[in-house]
Amino acid sequence: MAAFTFYTVAMSRGMIARWALHEAGADYEHEMMTWETRPDSYRALNPMNKVPTLVHHHNGHDHVITECAAICHYLAETHPGPELLPTVEEKADYFRWMFFAAGPLEQAIVTKTMGWEVPEERRATAGFGSFDLTVDTLDGWLRDRQFVCGDRFTMADVYVGSHVDWGLQFGTLPQRDAFTGYRDRINARDAKQAANAIDMSLMEPPA
Description:
Strand order of the largest sheet: 2-1-3-4
Radius of gyration: 17 Å
CATH topology of the largest domain: Glutathione S-transferase Yfyf (Class Pi), Chain A, domain 2
Structural class: alpha+beta
CATH class of the largest domain: Mainly Alpha
Order of helices and strands: EHEEEHHHHHH
CATH architecture of the largest domain: Up-down Bundle
């Protein structure tokens, strides 16, 4: 048995987790499902019936991890060899921007995609304030940096980078130089290309 079982659906947030698995060099096998054919037994692992879900088979115990940001960091913690964890000096930036992407950035993108408008007087209630403020904040951070923590790639770039990559691809983020340059740098990584090749092949209809 592989060390990890990875439950996912093609063309889903599972693509983030697969990239993280490849960056970490994790020993995993995947269980592919579809949106229509997730078995009832899957809810025992993830009661929300969402993907991805990662199960770590470790010392006779099964540890279940859900939520892509958590999966990314868990893999970095359990695979220290590739140096995906932040240094002491990088920790503030690493955690700040990973949780920024999981909170304000995703909220802002989903809100805009759904066509919801947050009244100006209620922006303090919304965790992201406004779409423009959120986008400008991320743009300002990436403008003078190669990666989230500066010049070195960390696991935070898997999570933040996936949001930027998808946002540019599907038009939910504006085409700004800071975003497109960052997208190009992360897309050049061997682990991302290998993970994406698997996901793309799984999306192809059977012959």
